[in-house]
Design brief:
The complex is a heterodimer of chains A (448) and B (102). Chain A is an alpha/beta fold. Chain A is 29% helix and 30% strand. Classes of the chains: A alpha/beta (448), B mainly alpha (102).
């Protein structure tokens, strides 16, 4: 029932392209027939309320299966290859019961998982008879939080038809922003262009070839685009909107993009995994000021920190206490400045290091480095970097002297084996002793 | 005054550092023509950032000058200085000359 409005769109648009995948076009008619195929199979084989892991990236079969799993009333846990190093942990945290692996040829391989999903929040969802979605985001201690959404609430804002734009699937299949892109595109019967990788040349080639109109990206991608020169090798004349979010955009980059792409509207997006993506309007293409809200969302600023109350807010975390205030507001942790109806988002007011939109918790990296032989102490902190916003740096003191290049290579190799690439320290400095504040908290700043 | 061939040597040392961390198939060749970033480039975004930081550190070690290579100046150039080892060496040369005059 919950996706009936999407079925209607698909039927109306049967002849139109829904997805470009590996340079092949798949129509809405195709998507609808795959959706029907999976509906029949799931009705026979899978009970509503089952926790189903969907290991996939944007592809025709992954999209049809995702929608069928929602329609069947299961609780879906999408996982992309990007989280491969943490897959086991995520499946265990979500207590996955069934696994659907969509392979590189777009074939689906189902298998049983050994977990029993009896979390009280799952039971609540089952009582409502609603489908669920579990997404992971970084928690305050570095442990990922499992965020449970009631999909029928998430879907509500897509029931209003809006603009039909060919859109590139840049953001990830298992991130709230990627899910937002997908649902927006499908609910308007538009074409979703998928890419095999997210390098500037691959993305620009796809924009040129498929006349992409909306490009949702990160600030880091825009820096890389400018440095790669890919925008000069391809015709990007079809672009109407570049939407950016998930990290603070330097004003200079914004102005430069506005100059380079005069026909394109640059639009800032804002959302969190806990409350979903808000509707937004930038003051102008080269302005960091943005109005956020939209139906189902209320915002307020308390002590300079943005709070959001959302109809589409999550039910809660599966592995952490509720973060909501008693009256139902979500504290985003993002420091904002207010000017009339516009806001300027300054980002996290904490030790968290934002590397290209991905969050890094210093304690997680510190805990790992402390396991190495000859390490006495370590402080991990962020240093500003124009390309990725920040880089991860580590100041390490040693138990006994060790040759510097050898030690640094050892630290980086060890981190590379155990951490996602963006968490690996770019700079490792050997220092004599560590600085502490008067309250004996580590001072996570660059030394002079 | 550091000459361009010295800067190339500095960058080769940065390549040595980076290669220590990379699996064999991703290692960079020590040549002025090695394409770093952009079409046919060998580095991904984190690789690029790591290489730039390594290059900055080597410049500081050798020349005693602190340079920030990934800045507004670099971003606003029509041709990216991070295209090849050779273009980066040229860019570092220009930046060091500016510092010397300023």
């Amino acid at each position: 029932m919950v996706i009936e409005f999407l079925r209607q769109v698909f039927a109306d648009r049967a002849e139109r392209s829904a997805v470009i995948w590996q340079d092949r076009e798949f129509s809405y008619g195709h998507l609808l027939s795959r959706l029907d195929h999976w509906r029949r199979r799931l009705e026979e084989e899978v009970a509503p309320g089952t926790v189903t892991v969907l290991e996939a990236d944007f592809s025709p079969e992954a999209i049809a299966l995702l929608l069928a799993l929602i329609e069947r009333g299961t609780i879906v846990v999408p996982l992309t290859p990007a989280v491969q190093t943490r897959k086991k942990e995520f499946i265990e945290t979500a207590a996955g019961e069934l696994d659907f692996l969509v392979d590189a040829e777009d074939k689906v391989h189902p298998s049983r998982l050994p977990f029993r999903a009896d979390h009280p929040l799952y039971d609540e969802l089952r009582r409502r008879g609603h489908p669920g979605l579990v997404l992971f985001s970084s928690g305050t201690t570095g442990r990922s939080k499992a965020i449970l959404h009631d999909v029928s609430h998430l879907l509500r804002k897509y029931t209003t038809r809006r603009h039909d734009f060919t859109t590139l699937a840049f953001l990830l299949f298992d991130h709230i922003a990627g899910i937002d892109t997908l649902l927006y595109v499908l609910s308007n019967g538009s074409c979703l262009v998928t890419v095999p990788d997210r390098s500037p040349d691959t993305v620009c080639r796809a924009v040129e070839r498929y006349r992409v109109e909306v490009l949702p990206v990160s600030a880091t991608f825009l820096h890389l685009l400018l440095l790669s020169g890919a925008h000069e090798r391809y015709d990007l004349g079809s672009l109407k909107y570049i939407a950016y979010g998930s990290e603070v955009m330097p004003e200079a980059t914004l102005k430069r993009c506005a100059e380079l792409f005069p026909g394109v509207t640059l639009l800032q997006k804002y959302g969190t995994t806990e409350v979903g993506t808000l509707r937004s309007r930038s003051e102008s293409s080269d302005s960091p000021w943005v109005r956020i809200g939209g139906e189902g969302f209320q915002t307020r600023v308390v002590d300079g920190i943005l709070q959001i109350k959302a109809h589409s807010a999550m039910l809660g975390y599966l592995n952490a206490p509720s973060p909501f205030t008693r009256d139902g507001w979500f504290i985003t942790g993002d420091r904002v400045e207010v000017r009339g109806e516009y806001m300027r988002i300054h980002g996290r007011d904490s030790d968290i290091i934002n590397v290209g939109g991905e969050k890094v918790f210093p304690t997680e990296v510190e805990d790992l480095i402390l396991q190495l032989d000859n390490v006495a102490d370590v402080t991990v902190y962020g240093e500003p970097n124009l390309i990725t916003g920040n880089i991860v740096c580590a100041d390490v003191s040693l138990v006994r002297p060790e040759e510097e290049p050898r030690f640094i290579a050892r630290v980086k190799r060890f981190c590379r084996e155990h951490l996602q690439p963006y968490k690996v320290p770019v700079k490792v400095n050997i220092v004599d002793e560590h600085r502490f504040s008067q309250r004996f908290k580590k001072l996570r700043q660059k030394r002079d | 005054m550091i000459e361009e061939k010295d800067i190339i040597q500095i960058l080769y040392r940065a390549i040595d550092d980076l290669n220590l961390q990379l699996p064999p198939e991703q290692r960079l060749e020590k040549s002025a023509e090695t394409v770093l970033f952009g079409e046919g480039g060998r580095l991904d975004s984190l690789g690029l950032v790591t290489f730039i930081v390594a290059a900055e550190q080597k410049v500081t070690e050798v020349a005693g000058i602190t340079l920030t290579l990934a800045d507004e100046k670099a971003m606003s150039r029509r041709n990216s200085p991070f295209r090849t080892v050779g273009t980066l060496a040229e860019y570092i040369g220009e930046r060091l000359a500016e510092d010397g005059n300023g």
